[in-house]
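We include the entry.

. . .
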Amino acid sequence: MTDSLLVRDDGDLRRVTLNRPEKINALDTAMLRALTAALDGAPDAGAALVAIDGAGPRGFCAGGDVAEMGRGADAFAAQEEALRAAMQALHGSAVPVVSVVHGRTLGAGCIVACLSDLVLGADSVQFGFPEMRFGLYPAFVHAALTERLPAALAFQILAGGRMMTAAEAYGFGFLTEILPDGGFAESAEAHIAHYRERIDALVIGRRILRMEDRPSMAEKTRRLAPLLAENHAAPSVRRLLADLSFAR
């Protein structure tokens, strides 16, 4: 796919690794497009399950690539379009998806986790929504969170812009399992093996979930895109972005 997103097929399991550890696997346009292709192509590769993880010890994913967003309207629009496509691929995946998350899991990284069917989290994982730091309400994160949480609760979490612990995330139904930091990779592998043996049951469960009468992810993001563009164009966002002192 690309050096920053690795895809490895292991029988009926497709493994996808966000591979940009120097940026805590921040998602740029190329990575998002590659993720969409990896998800869409899983059935043709004989995969019955997709597992997504992140390289490096610092975290699963630091969110969208802020540096790329800051290059102007065209770059922002390209990343937004790629994110929307990845969200649709995750939500509409033909096979179940498991995310294995650790460390910092922020913004768009939370989207990937939230739109997965199962989420295995290390005990020290931290979920965060830093967009409010530079005055941008994370509209697409809101769309993803409301797949799992009531809209009012999603708004309170996102507006606060705070970090969420593994225990809080599990309590909200965001995490499927909390696994100890010690031996996390091995424990996650054991859980993935457990799911592989019960893949038919998982498929039935997903079909039951999708019987609910809810807007598609494509429709959700279509409605939200104009609001996101309006927010991004606001003078306060440009000012706060210019003052941003951290880099992903």
